[in-house]
Amino acid sequence: MAGNREQAWRAWGSAAGDSADKPFGRHSSVLSDVAPLQRSSIVKKLNPDQKGALRLAERFGDRLVCVRYRTDPESGRRFTTAEIVVEERAPTAPAPRHSLVRVGWKETELRRAIKELGGVWLHDKKLWQVPRDAVKQLRIGKRVVREGA
Fold first, then answer.
1. Which of 4, 41, 93, 98 has the fewest CB atoms lying closer than 10 Å?
2. What pTM value is reported for the model?
């Protein structure tokens, strides 16, 4: 029996090409109607190291997050779904929550408004550190100075 399964996998793989496209069950039925899957309820959730998920763990390796067994209440069909990691990225630095703004010494009304909205004077840079939403609210985007400048 195991020999027949192995021959079927090899035959299927040579026709399809990529091993990631191989069916993982006893039969490869293409799901033509997704409605049963969408209305199905989760019966069991397994981690990759649990019995019942080991076959998929072999196939997907470390990319496998979990396996879910689902059933459709109307037709009684059972589905096995696998949650896998498709893409992984390094975290990006969040955008700064403030801007540096140049304000003239005689612009007292603007300075007062900036202070009221949480702006702080940075004496060493001789610039105002203003929250981004305050820059938008006061419409002073043209006065923003880049951090390195």
1. 93
2. 0.46
